[in-house]
Amino acid sequence: MELDRRAYWIWLQHALQAGSSKPRHILESFGSIEDFYRAGPQEWGLLGIFTQRELSAMREYPLQEAQAQLAHCAQMGQTVLTPEDGEYPFLLRQIHNPPAVLYIQGELPDFAEVPAISIVGTRKATLVGKRVAHSLGYGLAKGGAVVVSGGALGIDTAAHKGALLAGGKTVCVLGCGIDYPYLAANTSLREAISHSGALLSEYPPGTPALRNHFPIRNRLISGLSVGTVVVEAAEKSGSLLTANNAIHQNRDVFAVPGLVGSRMSQGPNNLLREGMKAVSCANDILEEYLFRFPGKIHLEESAESVMLIKAAPQEQKPTPACRKVPEGLSDDASALFQALSREPRALAELCSEAGVPAARALPALTELELMGCIQGYSGRRYALKHS
C-alpha cells in the first residue's frame, strides 16, 4: 500500500514536537518532506539544526505508526492537514513556526474569504467580562466574522457561546488532542463547536492538556486571526502572550478598556497605553475589515449591545427616558449619561460635553450599556435607550 504523504509530517512532528520552526528550514533545503526523509540520518545531521534528541526520535519513530495514526483519525472523522495541503490555513503559513500537522474535528472556514477574530482573556473572568466577551462573539459572528478562541472557562467560553448563539462560525484551538476530555464542563460546548465550526490542535489525538502546551498553542490562536481582542487579563497572563504573538505576526490587536485599579483590567489597559485600538462593541472591530473583505462582513445597528442588555440582571432593567441619573453609576458614567440624548451622538462629542477623556469614556459607556441605560450604534455613536 502506498504511504500517505501526511505520514511523513506526523513522523516529523513527533520528532520535533509542537512549536518548532524547523519544518520551514527543511522545506527550504529539501523541497519536500519525502525527500528529507529519504536523505537519511547523515544528511539530517549535516543541516546542523537538530538536537541529539530530535535526531534520535527521527531515527526511532517508525512511519508505520504515523500511518496508523492517520487511519485512526479517518475512522474518528477527523481531518489531518499539513503545510503541503491546499486546505491548510494560509494565515498559518505566514507565521514563524507553522505547525507541521493540524488535527481538525469539524470544518474550517476559508480564512482567505472571511476575517477571523480571536477573543482572549482570563479564565477567572468577572461577570462584566463574560458579558462583554459574549456580546463581542455574538456581534462579530452576526457581522460575518469567524470567532477564534481557546475553549477555556471564562472569556473563551463566553466568546464561543456568543458566536454559536448568533448562528456563526467559531474555531476552538486546543492545547491537547481534539479527542481529549479537556474541561468536562465544556463537553457539550466542544460538541456544538465541532458542528458549527471546528476544533483544532497541533497535538495528536489522545494528548493530555499539559500546562506547557498552552503558551505554545497561543501562537495559533493569533496566527489564525487577522485581529486579536483582549477582554480581561492580568498584567502577566497567557492572553497578553497571545496579543504579543499577534503583534509579532503583524496582526491587529484590540483591547476592551477596563476600570482603573481592577487587576483584570491591567492587561487590556496596558495594551491601550501602547497604542492598541480600544473597542466597546463588535462594530469597532468589524469596521476595520469592511474594505479588506468586501461583501463578506457588515455592520448592524445596535447588534453589538443587544446581548449585553439581555444579559443584564433583572434589577437593572432599562431606565425610562428621563434625566434622573440611575443609582450606582461612576462619576464618568453619570456625566456621560447627562450628555446623552435619544439621538445617537458621536463619542468625541459626548466626551467634549461631559468633560470625560476618551480613555475613561469607553469603560463608562460599557457600564451604561450593562445597566441597560443606553444603546450603541455603528461608528462609536451612543444614545439613550428608548423605553
Structure description:
The chain is an alpha/beta fold and 387 residues long. The chain has 3 domains: 5-76, no CATH class; 116-289, Rossmann fold, CATH 3.40.50.450; 312-384, Arc Repressor Mutant, subunit A (Orthogonal Bundle). The chain has 17 helices and 12 strands. The strands form 2 sheets. Strands 1-2-6-5-4-3-7-8-9 form a 9-stranded mixed sheet, with helices on both faces. Strands 10-12-11 form a 3-stranded antiparallel sheet. Helix 7 links the parallel strand 3 and strand 4 (146-149).
Q: What is the spatial order of strands in the main beta sheet?
A: 1-2-6-5-4-3-7-8-9
State the name of the first-level CATH class of the largest domain: Alpha Beta
Termini, distance in Å?
A: 71 Å
The best one-word shape is elongated
What fold name stands as the CATH topology of the largest domain? Rossmann fold
Proportion of residues in extended strands? 5-15%
Class by alpha and beta content: alpha/beta
How much helical structure, as a percent, in the residues? 40-55%
Care to give the gist of this entry?
By secondary structure, this protein is an alpha/beta fold.
Layout of secondary structure:
Blueprint: H1 5-16, H2 22-30, H3 33-46, H4 52-60, H5 63-75, E1 79-81, H6 90-93, E2 102-106, E3 116-120, H7 127-142, E4 146-149, H8 155-165, E5 170-173, H9 187-195, E6 197-201, H10 213-223, E7 227-230, H11 238-248, E8 252-255, H12 266-273, E9 277-278, H13 282-286, H14 306-310, H15 331-339, E10 345-346, H16 347-354, H17 358-370, E11 374-377, E12 381-384
Parallel strand pairs: 3-4, 3-7, 4-5, 5-6, 7-8, 8-9
Antiparallel strand pairs: 1-2, 2-6, 10-12, 11-12
